[in-house]
Amino acid sequence: xxxxxxxxxxxxxxxxxxxxxxxxxxxxxxxxxxxxxxxxxxxxxxxxxxxxxxxxxxxxxxxxxxxxxxxxxxxxxxxxxxxxxxxxxxxxxxxxxxxxxxxxxxxxxxxxxxxxxxxxxxxxxxxxxxxxxxxxxxxxxxxxxxxxxxxxxxxxxxxxxxxxxxxxxxxxxxxxxxxxxxxxxxxxxxxxxxxxxxxxxxxxxxxxxxxxxxxxxxxxxxxxxxxxxxxxxxxxxxxxxxxxxxxxxxxxxxxxxxxxxxxxxxx
Length: 267
Known about the structure:
- The chain has helices spanning 33-42, 60-63, 66-73, 81-88, 152-157, 172-177, 182-189, 197-207, 227-240; strands at residues 2-8, 15-19, 24-27, 53-54, 77-80, 101-104, 110-112, 115-121, 130-136, 139-144, 163-167, 214-218, 252-254, 264-266.
- By secondary structure, it is of the alpha/beta class.
- A 7-stranded mixed beta sheet has the order 6-5-4-3-2-1-14. Strands 7-8-9-10-11-12-13 form a 7-stranded mixed beta sheet, with helices on one face.
- Strand 2 and strand 3 (24-27) form a beta hairpin.
């Protein structure tokens, strides 16, 4: 059995819990330690029960609570060499015992308890960012956010999923006409920025298969997207795309930035 729950997901902070009956990990700690603990309590878990924190990259909406979690619970933290170096240079997270860091290498699988974890390189404007594929027995989950674009190699790495949390960051029209300064708009829309709703739907279309379980859309921008728009835009891309599937063929959820999501399980 594998299960996934979004504690928080959005441009203002991200923290995802993935686990089995015996092992649980956090993917990112971009909200306060207090909020992480409260969110885990809602699904009958505690921060102390986590077996580690998988870090995607060093931007603050992914590591804001990392220092507190490290100092309070002594949790092992897994990240690429570039990400570890960038975190250690980020003064706002405070002092972290460097012995808690475990260096990982993209596409080299490692284990935490009964979970097999494979980091996969992604295109984002960070030191050495990754997404994560997590496997137990025949079940495979993935958390894929913070990528400006994707290629065939990434699509290959995420075939055969049961459950996927996928970025649907922004609506292109809202971003283009919104209040963000032009350089920031270009960054977000660039190849090392974030996936739009449409690109999210196109990537999802390439990952669907007959045994696909469900998808949760995450990392929505507060200023340039909203839940209903992301949901409908991704569904439309799937239904109208060049694939044999329709949006009605599988459950789709949208993770909230300030509420714990339903727990998605695959037995």
